[in-house]
């Protein structure tokens, strides 16, 4: 046995795996908005993350790489301004 402050202790004692310090974003969205974004709305199966695309060009590239069809762009949702200055959006 080595003492707790021995300089050789780190070489002998196995390291414990560190716990992740953050929750994955699908878990966070489930907790905050009560929606499972990894569940297919059509069949109920599990979706997988292919890539995080932040720009329209990146989205187009990923769709082309996987031979997925692109839907035409849709109009932004209409919003009504309420008295308090909040936007009211119609979500389905």
Question: Would you write up a description of this structure?
Answer:
The protein has 92 residues and is α+β, with helices and mostly antiparallel strands. It has a domain at 9-72. Helices cover 25% and strands 7% of the residues. The chain has 3 helices and 2 strands, in the order αααββ. The protein has helices spanning 9-12, 25-33, 56-65, and strands at 79-81, 87-89. A hairpin with a 5-residue loop joins strand 1 (79-81) and strand 2 (87-89). It is elongated, with a radius of gyration of 24 Å. 0% of the residues are buried. The model has no long low-confidence stretch (mean pLDDT 80).
List the helices and strands and how they pair.
Elements: H1 9-12, H2 25-33, H3 56-65, E1 79-81, E2 87-89
Antiparallel strand pairs: 1-2
**Main β-sheet description:** 2 strands, antiparallel
Given the C-alpha coordinates, what overall shape results? elongated
Quaternary state, please? Answer: single chain
Radius of gyration: 24 Å
């Amino acid at each position: 046995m080595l003492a707790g402050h021995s300089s050789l202790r780190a070489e002998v004692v196995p390291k414990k795996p560190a716990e992740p310090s953050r929750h994955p974003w699908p878990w966070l969205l489930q907790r905050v908005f009560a929606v499972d974004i990894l569940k297919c709305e059509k069949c109920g199966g599990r979706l997988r993350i292919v890539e995080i695309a932040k720009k329209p060009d990146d989205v187009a590239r990923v769709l082309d790489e996987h031979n997925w069809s692109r839907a035409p762009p849709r109009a932004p949702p209409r919003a009504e301004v309420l008295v308090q200055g909040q936007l009211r959006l119609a979500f389905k």
